[in-house]
Amino acid sequence: MFNAVLIEKDDAGYRASLRELDDAALPEGDVTVKVEYSTLNYKDGLAITGKGPVVRKFPMVPGIDLAGTVEASSHPGIAVGDRVLLNGWGVGEGHWGGLAQRARLKGEWLVPLPAAFTPREAMAIGTAGYTAMLCVMALERQGVTPDKGEVLVTGANGGVGSVAVAVLAGLGYTVVASTGRPDEADYLKALGATEILDRAQFAAPGKPLARERWAGAVDTVGSHTLANVCASTRYRGTVAACGLAQGMDLPATVAPFILRGVTLVGIDSVMAPREERIEAWSRLARDLDPAKLALMTREIGLGETIDTAAALLEGKVRGRVVVDVN
Ligand code: NDP
């Protein structure tokens, strides 16, 4: 038997609860993992509260991330006792996920836990942090170097935003943070932001083109914010778009792209190829200051995940939440 968060949907409605489940209920897979830590991302918040159509099968154990130790494996190259990490691949959406003490998975989804991280640290980073690194790598690929000018991070107090601020500042970029929580300015400055902007200035409909400011940007917010960020990006600058905290829409014009040569790069962490994941994790080991990671991380137990998921969607959670499932 093992403890898990379970999401059900039936005549009684959509609900999540903490449950004790039988090993026999675990889904198909060639690797069984004793989960040590999981985490809460925005998508887990949507799944647990039912506020977004994330879960595709019921009942579902949520949790798009997990770190733990292999208990059984028939997958070539994965042995009992290996420490492993999983991010995405539809786990916690269409296949039982990490907010549980045990998981059964496809071995091809797992990557070795990087030697630099404990399972807890890897989950403090989680999909949010790994996505932030994918955004940074995309900016680098487009030639956005620290000497090119200021880089904007939107949704800066969130998980992706906090890691993006910390990594970019560590790499020597001048980082400007946009947030709806200006009272967290000291926190964002401790992560490395040099200036804090009120997100209200990006949130409302804006002009097709605005004053050129950003050499690059990491946007976790979407909607008018992303449109306004593109409109204020400098000639040949790059915006990495990964999120939709404000909305899924993109009410923009082509002006920034055809008049300023701005590049909009889409970032997807869920199906990203294995080599890119391994690269992102090794970059996190190199470029994310562990003291800053500790500053942005709060730990909760499995029993607290349901309430915390609701708070996360209300924008009340700062940085990252790591879940000790045991
Ligand atoms: P968090 O909830 O931790 O962060 C989201 C942040 O967005 C909030 O902290 C808040 O920051 C800001 N925000 C919230 N609501 C609004 C709003 N209505 N308008 C403007 N800003 C808002 O989530 P994560 O960091 O885990 O994820 C961030 C986004 O990235 C999500 O949309 C998520 O779905 C997406 N994502 C996408 C991935 C991919 O593969 N493409 C992978 C991981 C995440 P502040 O208080 O500073 O304003």
From TrEMBL:
PANTHER family: ACRYLYL-COA REDUCTASE ACUI-RELATED, SHORT-CHAIN DEHYDROGENASE/REDUCTASE
Lineage of producing organism: Bacteria, Pseudomonadati, Pseudomonadota, Betaproteobacteria, Rhodocyclales
One MF annotation (Gene Ontology) recorded for this entry: acryloyl-CoA reductase (NADPH) activity
InterPro entries referenced in this protein's UniProt entry, alphabetically: Acrylyl-CoA_reductase_AcuI, ADH-like_C, ADH-like_N, ER, GroES-like_sf, NAD(P)-bd_dom_sf, Zn-ADH-like_protein
Domain Enoyl reductase (ER), residue spans: 13-323
Protein name: Alcohol dehydrogenase
A Pfam family reported for this protein in Swiss-Prot or TrEMBL: ADH_N
